[in-house]
Design a protein that fits this description.
270 residues; 13 strands; globular; binds zinc ion
Length: 270
């Protein structure tokens, strides 16, 4: 009986230690560019034709107490910070700007590129992977389908030298429930979102481009340029279930009003 009690106590101790294995202790929102577009309806077919819209574009620097820094998305290329009038994407009548470089924003936090141990990207569009090559030492975390899609694009979205971690489906990244990649295809075929568990803030889902702005989320609208509409609808439903299950917030990357309202680096969420 006593041996059994001791064994049970040991198991409970191990479980308790396991539960404390690691957690995200900081999440920084970093301004990684913004865009002005002249016609919102390219993102919401049939709705608000000719109405302009501004987009935010965030990077999220996450610190895990035992794994170190993970950067989620890298924004539009840093070189845009030197182009005051911005760069226009004619097909979308959208002009991109950068108020600061990602590297300068990280430096202001005392973080060097080599300190970023993991680099996870939602998908390979240029406003998300603009600075991947600045982090050659980081393990690049991307869905296998997205990686293969990117490698076939002319030109390739990036030519990273990184060690790759190719994911198929959902993945508890560090095995402790602190960061969970959620497969959310549709916008692109290997698109992913990230569920972040924060001690004080609670659970937050970083959308990537599973949805672009709040009214598209509220009405489950899919942009005109999109890889697979049915997949996009299914991915939004999946995210809605995660939000309900975890009582999580959805942080929509390109939704400028809600992004502007959030604390930005050097402030952080914990
Ligand atoms: Zn995109």
């Amino acid at each position: 009986m006593r041996a059994l009690f001791q064994t049970l106590t040991l198991i409970l101790l191990l479980l308790a230690t396991g539960a404390e294995a690691g957690e995200v202790d900081r999440l920084y929102v970093i301004d990684c560019g913004w865009a002005h577009a002249t016609d919102q309806s390219l993102w919401s077919p049939g709705v608000n034709a000719g109405v302009p819209i501004d987009f935010s574009d965030n990077c999220y620097l996450i610190h895990h107490d035992s794994e170190g820094y993970l950067l989620w998305d890298t924004g539009i290329a840093d070189r845009l910070a030197a182009v005051p009038d911005g760069v226009t994407v004619p097909a979308l009548s959208q002009t991109w700007h950068r108020s600061q470089t990602l590297l300068a924003a990280l430096a202001a936090l005392g973080v060097k590129p080599a300190d970023v141990r993991y680099l996870a990207v939602s998908h390979v569009h240029p406003d998300h992977v603009g600075n991947v090559e600045e982090f050659p030492d980081a393990t690049l975390i991307i869905q296998k389908a997205e990686w293969e899609y990117g490698q076939k694009l002319p030109p390739k979205p990036f030519s990273p030298k990184n060690k790759l971690q190719l994911i198929e489906g959902d993945k508890d990244l560090f095995g402790d429930g602190s960061l969970t990649v959620l497969s959310t295809p549709g916008h692109t075929l290997g698109h992913q979102s990230l569920l972040v568990h924060l001690k004080k803030t609670g659970d937050v889902v970083l959308s990537g481009d599973a949805v672009h702005f709040q009214s598209n989320w509220d009405n489950r609208r899919v942009p005109g340029f999109n890889a697979d509409k049915a997949q996009s609808m299914a991915s939004m439903e999946k995210l809605a279930h995660v939000l309900a299950d975890k009582h999580a917030q959805l942080w929509i990357n390109h939704d400028k009003p809600s992004s502007d309202a959030r604390r930005h680096a050097p402030e952080f969420y914990e």
